[in-house]
Every structure is written in C-alpha cells, then in structure tokens.
Amino acid sequence: MMLTRRIFTALMMSAAAMTPVAMTSPAAAQELTKITFVSPSASAINSFSIHTAIGEGFFADEGLEVTAQAINGSGAVLQALSSGQADFGRPGPGPLLAARGRGVDAVFIYNHAAKNNFGLVVPDASPVQTPAELKGTVIGTGSADGAEVGFARNVMTGSGLVDGTDYSFLTVGDGGPASAGLRSGEISAYSAAAADAAVLNHRGVAVRDITPPEFARFFGNGLVTMGDTIRDNPELVEKFVRAVYRGHMFALDEANREAVLNDMAMANPQESEDREFANSLLEAIMDRSVPTDLSHGYGYQPPEVWEEWQQVQIAGGELAEPLPDLTAAYTNEFTLKVNGSAK
Predict the structure, then answer these.
(1) Burial of 227 from C-beta contacts in 10 A (0-12 / 13-18 / 19+)
(2) What is the largest CA-CA distance in the chain?
(3) pTM here?
(4) DSSP at 327
(5) With CB atoms counted within 10 Å of each terminal CB, which end of the chain scores lower, N or C?
C-alpha cells in the first residue's frame, strides 16, 4: 500500500509486462467472463479481498474469471485501466483525481482501505516527533506517483511545510532500498503503507509513525473501473463488487483465517513464506479496511472526504483547479446495493 519484501523488487513489474500473481477460482458450469484486475504492488495481502474472492470461488459464483496482475504504483494502474489492459484496479484516491484532471474517466467503486493505509514513519532512534520537524529533510517514497506521495504531501502541508521548499521527496522504492535509505540517512522519513512499516520492522529497521491522528480519515487505495464500463455494463460492475464484498467479509471473520492465509499463499507464495509474519501483516491491512463509521456498511466512500482529498490535490499542485464534477470520480451505488445499506 507483504512480508518478505526482499523478494518484492524482483516481483515488481512495469505496466508493459504485467505477470499474473493469482489464479482463478475453480468450478463453474457456465462459461465465465474473463476480467483482469491490476494492483499497485506485488502484495496479495494488500488486495486480500480480491484474492480471497478468487480463492473461495466468489468471483466464479458471479460468473467471473479474474486474473490478478501486479504493476508498480497507482499511476501504472490507472494507465492500464485507461488503455484497456485491465478492467478493474486498486489505485489511490489522489492519483485518481489527478488522472481525472487530465481527462481520464476512472471511477472509485469500493473503499477498500477505509482508514488511511499510509503513515509517515521515522527511525525509532530519530529525534523527530512531528512532521513539522522534518523541515529541511528528504522524505522517501516507494514510487514517484503513488498514493503515498499525495498522502505525505498532505501531512506536510498540514504542518505548514511546502514541497520543494521546506522538504523534498526521493523515490527509493520499498523493502530493501527503503531500509538502506533510512539506515544511511539518505532519507529522514518514509511514507509507508501499513505493510511497508511492518516489513521495515521485520527487517530490523525499527520505525515509528509520526502521522497526526486526524489524517486517519483520508481513506487509501480502493477499487476502480472506467466510467464507460459502469455505463455500458453495470451488471458486470455489480457482480465484481458483490464478489469483493463477500471476500472482504469472509476475510474479516476470524474463523476463516487459515483459509484466507491459504488464499494469500496461493496468490503469492513467496510473500507467505513466513506464515506468522504474513498473518500479522494481514491483520494490520484488514484493520485499515474497517470504517470508523459503519452506518453505511463496508466499502462506502464518504463524500466529504473526497472533498478534502480534492483540496489536498489542489494544494499539492496535482490539480490546477477543482474538478467540474467531483461526484463523477466515485460512486457508492454498487457498494450500498451489495452491502445491504441501499435505502
């Protein structure tokens, strides 16, 4: 937004050479509709609802055969969607708004990381206690245009600091490169997903999160498709969202933990080599998927937070001005229908 990130560098791929990281569900008397899902990292655990829905046959129940592929960053996910290489993806809200500002008709359809899945972390031994104390430093990111960049800029803006003037970003990658950057002092902080922080700690680079608590409301990566898919084939979108929701609920049930871990291992065996760590990582990622307000059920996107995300993008320069219609960037229609909250 995991486990042995030592293998992640080898697993990361460019948009032009995407490689499947999960297999389709068995069974289905009828001919299944083949669709492609792309995620911004090689981690299956970060997309646990997708891989649980694949492994437990929920997509097959909807008549869908899903191939999951991993590419590097939200920008690449949106490129794959807009070029027709993929049907659904999991980018961040900031990159999606920036893409819409360039005329890309991508639409959020399910809030997968209902609580912010990023944090600004520093080495445990660092004297830095607040984002404001990072003035004059370099902050590392996993990718140049991923959701973690917009998030970190948002946090720093909230502390009165300006990108390029008071601090700078450096794309260092994740896993080993991020560990090396923090150890060497090349970067003073790192904008990390919950999984990234867990990996750093697992690698012996103890980090702590200095993100102010008020930023938890900025939800993270979610499920996205193109506007023409919604207009031309709403039944497909509903089927996809229904299977994802079932996968989400199945995974959150503690009684299903072993089955879910097996699904994760099937999708990405190397990530799950250390079963204990994979389990702790899964717990951290799943916790970020639970909304602070459940009045609209799982997967719901608060419109007021979309407004805040847009202001963040404008303040950071990713958007020159407000979008003509911010509500076109997201829809709760399918989520409310499948989670039973539709009035």
Answers:
(1) middle
(2) 61
(3) 0.78
(4) G
(5) C
Which residues of the chain are modeled with pLDDT < 50?
Answer: 1-28
Q: Would you state the pLDDT for residue 343?
A: 67
Instruction: Report helix, strand or coil for 181.
Output: helix
Q: What is the pLDDT of residues 170-189, one digit of tens each?
A: 999 877 788 899 999 999 99
Phi and psi, residue 296, nearest 5°: -110, 10
Distance separating alpha carbons of residues 55 and 285, to the nearest angstrom: 18
Give residue 279's identity as a one-letter amino acid code.
Answer: N
Q: What would the two tokens of residue 244 be?
A: 């994802």
Domain's final residue, options 172, 200, 217: 217
Residue whose tokens read 């990658």: 173
Q: What is the pLDDT of residue 79?
A: 97
Cβ atoms < 10 Å from Cβ of 323: 16
pLDDT value for 10? 34
Task: Identify the CA nearest to 156 among candidates 140, 186, 123, 133.
Answer: 133
Report strand pairing: 118-123 vs 138-141.
Answer: unpaired
CA distance 142 to 124: 20
Helical (H) or strand (E) element with 72: none
Domain residue limits at 176: 118-217
pLDDT of residue 27: 45
Using DSSP, state whether 282 is helix, strand or coil: helix
**185: its two tokens:** 């002092």
183-194 in b/e form (b: 16+ CB < 10 A) is eeeebbbbbbbb
Nearest to 69 by CA among 58, 59, 80, 57: 80
pLDDT at 6: 32
One domain for residues 96 and 159:
no
Q: Which of 217, 237, 257 is the last residue of a domain?
A: 217
Predicted pLDDT of residue 85: 97
